[in-house]
Amino acid sequence: MDYINKSFSLEGKVALVTGATYGIGFAIAKAFHKAGATIVFNNRTQESLDQGLESYKKEGIDAHGYLFDVTDEKAVEENIKKIESEVGPIDILVNNAGIIKRIPMIEMTAEEFRQVVDIDLNGPFIMAKAVLPSMIERRSGKIINICSMMSELGRETVSAYAAAKGGLKMLTRNIASEYGKYNIQCNGIGPGYIATPQTAPLREDGHPFNNFIISKTPAERWGTPEDLMGPAIFLASDASNFVNGHVLYVDGGILAYIGKQPK
Ligand code: NAP
Ligand code: GCO
């Protein structure tokens, strides 16, 4: 048990999970808390921040909430400095904040495309850039980028999201390549289809996508945010110290599966 307790523990670590008010980010933050970490999260509106603080309180977690948008470089730099002095140097960054716009590509404006890429790809770049100097100095750090099935696959209406999440997979590999020598590990988690507010419109009763996803998933169900807890602890802990530039797909087997034979 000693090995398990030591290697998977996040005791004494400070973890910043972006956009972790609910959904996947909230579940990952809860997992980190259970593993011993101090939790910091941010959101872009006071309303979301307060909602998050309330939810952490209900779980008995004393989380530190900061109000800033991951696309605002100046605000990110200022808030990272604030977090470092008020809570402590950041040991673990999870780039979780993200949005999707489901619009057929030929109907999408360049501005809409830019908004998605800005939050889902530029955001993780800006965040990673802000935490890396201290990680380099301390010769230790973990960055986890929340990728997607769309880091590997395309589908109708999600061109901007797929472009951003595909880019995020490559940013992950590049951070690992560039800073691995400082004992910094940057990996991705690629969730399959997970029941959160982001996918709520696809799960409405009778929506054809609901049955489609269940039949595309060998596990024959939607994932839950809690399905991401173990993989996130692994990638944040010493247990993964020689895992770098990898995307761990947590998808109930979607990427392994050719799909059901039509009846
Ligand atoms: P969600 O329920 O929509 O939560 C996303 C959170 O990010 C929200 O709290 C949102 O704030 C926040 N956010 C958005 N833009 C932000 C910004 N610019 N700055 C700070 N915070 C921001 O999403 P989720 O389903 O939990 O997904 C979390 C991550 O996993 C996303 O990157 C998503 O693309 C990815 N993912 C999701 C699935 C899935 O099936 N659900 C699968 C694969 C990957 P508001 O509360 O203000 O909206
Ligand atoms: C969609 C979904 C996906 C998921 C997820 C898959 O419309 O296809 O929203 O993109 O959210 O990212 O891994």
What does this protein structure show overall?
The structure is a single chain. The chain has 263 residues and is an alpha/beta fold. It has one domain: Rossmann fold (3-Layer(aba) Sandwich). It is built from 8 helices and 7 strands, in the order αβαβαβαβαβαβααβ. It has a 7-stranded parallel β-sheet, sandwiched between helices. Helix 6 links the parallel strand 5 and strand 6. The model has no long low-confidence stretch (mean pLDDT 97). The structure holds NADP nicotinamide-adenine-dinucleotide phosphate and D-gluconic acid. NADP nicotinamide-adenine-dinucleotide phosphate (NAP) binds next to helix 2, strand 2 and helix 5. NADP nicotinamide-adenine-dinucleotide phosphate binds next to helix 2, strand 2 and helix 5. Pfam families: adh_short_C2. GO terms for molecular function: gluconate 5-dehydrogenase activity. Belongs to the short-chain dehydrogenases/reductases (SDR) family. InterPro entries: NAD(P)-bd_dom_sf, Sc_DH/Rdtase_CS, SDR_fam. Keywords: Oxidoreductase.
Short structural summary:
This protein is of the alpha/beta class and 263 residues long. It contains 8 helices and 7 strands, in the order H-E-H-E-H-E-H-E-H-E-H-E-H-H-E. It has a single domain (3-194, 224-255), classed as Rossmann fold (3-Layer(aba) Sandwich), CATH 3.40.50.
